[in-house]
Amino acid sequence: LSPFFKSPMVDGGYDVADHCAVDPVFGTLDDFDALVAEAHRRGLRVIVDLVVNHTSDQHPWFLESRSSRASAKRSWYVWRPGRDGGPPNNWCSEFGGPAWTYDPATDEWYLHSFAPQQPDLNWDEPAVEAAMHEVMRFWLRRGVDGFRVDVVHKIGKDPLLRDNLGTFVGPSHHRPGHRFDEDWPSVHPRLRRMRRVVKEFGERMMVGEVYLLDQAAMAMYVRWDDELDLAHNFHFMNLPWSADLVRTAICELDRLLEPRGWPTWCLNNHDHPRVASRYPGEAAARLSAVLLLTLRGTPFLYQGEELGLRDGAIPEEQRVDVAGRDPARCPLPWEPPSVAGPGAGFTAGRPWLPIAPDAETRAVARQLDDPQSVLSLYRTLLALRRREPALRVGSMAVFEGTGPVLVYRREVPTASLLVLLNFDGQPATVRAADVGRPAIRGTIEASSTMDDLGRGVDAPEVELGPFEGLVLREA
Ligand code: GLC
After folding, report:
1. In the annotation, is 434 catalytic?
2. Residues 334, 336, 342, 345: what is their CA dihedral angle, to the nearest 10 degrees?
3. pLDDT digit string (tens) for 43-70?
4. How far apart are CA 57 and CA 7, in angstroms?
5. What DSSP letter does each residue of 139-176 carry, written as one string?
6. Annotated active-site residue in 31, 33, 38, 200
7. Collapsing DSSP states into helix, strand and coil, what is residue 412?
């Protein structure tokens, strides 16, 4: 669940004004309890977003902190005098501009890694850490199965607040120079202590939004039973469409995580253009489905990915997000508008953003009946994954020298599955020798086009169509 806490909604609820209350726009705590109970009854687990790096500027903690330099909560946020009439250092906000805002009432500046309405908590203050642990316990007691920890790499910063190296302009997720304002070594003991809180409640999990583009740095956050169980991999998510780069990334991560961690794969979330928009269209969306659901690790899917949705075009007057991320956040069409009206089965009221594009043809109800649809592909792959231990827990061997085709074998002693993914818009061939066999032999269990399911293959080579992906159960 994305943030549903009480919030002025400057950043889609990532500006929390009360961590332990449901915003009235979503309902009440009783609704939340009912949701968790009903989910559990159906065998579903519920993970909630935990926003730890910052709060809303309307949070009572910040109001108190801001009230005077002598306030008991002054140290809960990062306040500093200016430097030469400007901000205390050169750190930049992820949303552009300086990461500092001047507060005339107390003649000091406060730090905000995101919008000015999202002041950063000071994690060097032990009382902040203790308060956040209490927030975690509040939701764990209510039965949540774990947390997605928001920008968790930012809860450790250089206590000396030294200048970053270089000057950064605009959104800076992709810059190498975040030397001092994130991923400071102090983050790791803090995570370990969060883990201890989670462990008080038995089997619960934490996945981190560790937005570091260096896989080696990200992998340091993943330690079973110690730090995070899982971390989203933004290096992978930001790769250009290339079999070579994907191949290198998955091999590297595998080595980096062994033996204490487990990979996580995702290609879409609420902060990024959708796969069907940023890669070559529906064909790429289909290929990435086969990729995500057959790699060794835990896949994360984002609403609408299973329909092959594209980004929406948002007219100026309907924009909501501070950072231009609305196009990937359009509501999901359950039914075609011609049947269900303009809310497409998502709402009978006015949707908060325009319904996702192609609602007429891509609505869930349309795709459920269509055996070739992207949704049917996802269902086939998920069923296969459930059926085949090789896909869930098997080893993974990635083959080199197969050009635009990414090829890997997932294996347990009783079964072996070969995955072939052609990233190219041209047909491509994989030879048996490429995968260490005298012949490519088996049954097609899944295919990105949804053609040929169940067909036998026994040949010295396999030809793949443009952007085609196959999963072969080897004989
Ligand atoms: C994370 C969220 C993003 C939000 C930011 C600040 O990156 O995914 O939506 O704007 O944190 O909380």
Report:
1. no
2. -20
3. 999 999 999 999 999 999 999 999 999 9
4. 10
5. HHHTT--EEEETTGGGS---TT-PPPSS---S--TT-T
6. 200
7. strand
CA distance 307 to 338: 18
Rounded to the nearest whole angstrom, what is the distance from the C-alpha of residue 211 to the centroid of ligand 1? Answer: 10
Angle between helix 374-387 and helix 281-294 axes, rounded to 10 deg:
10
Vertex 123 angle, CA 122 and 125, to 5°? 80
Pocket flag, ligand 1, residue 326 (CB < 6 Å): no
Q: Which amino acid is at 345?
A: G
DSSP letter string, 246-266: HHHHHHHHHHHHTTT---EE-
Burial of residue 38 (CB within 10 Å: 0-12, 13-18, 19+) is exposed
**Rounded CA gap, 392 and 229, in Å?**
16
Q: What is the pLDDT of residues 337-367, one digit of tens each?
A: 999 999 999 999 989 899 999 999 999 999 9
**8 Å CB contact between 157 and 184:** yes
**316 labelled catalytic:** no
The model scores a pTM over 0.90: yes
pLDDT tens by residue, 120-163 = 999 999 999 999 999 999 999 999 999 999 999 999 999 999 99
Q: 206 in helix, strand or coil?
A: strand
Residue nearest to ligand 1 atom 12, measured at CA: 14
Decide: 182 in ligand 1 pocket, CB within 6 A. no
Mapping DSSP to helix (H, G, I), strand (E, B) and coil, where does residue 59 land?
coil
Mutation pick for ligand 1 pocket among 9, 151, 212, 303 (CB with most ligand atoms within 8 Å) = 151
Cα dihedral 292, 283, 357, 232, rounded to 10, equals: 20
Looking at the chain, the number of H-run helices and the number of E-run strands are 14, 19
Give burial (CB, 10 Å; 0-12/13-18/19+) of 141: exposed
Enclosing H/E stretch for 66: helix 60-67
Residues 6+ apart with CB under 8 A from 134: none
Gap from CA of 170 to ligand 1 centroid (Å) = 16
Q: Which uninterrupted H or E stretch holds 421?
A: strand 415-422
Q: What tokens appear for 121 in the block? A: 């908590």
Question: How far away, in angstroms, is 168 Cα from ligand 1 center?
Answer: 19
Assess whether the previous peptide bond of 404 is cis (omega < 30° from 0): no
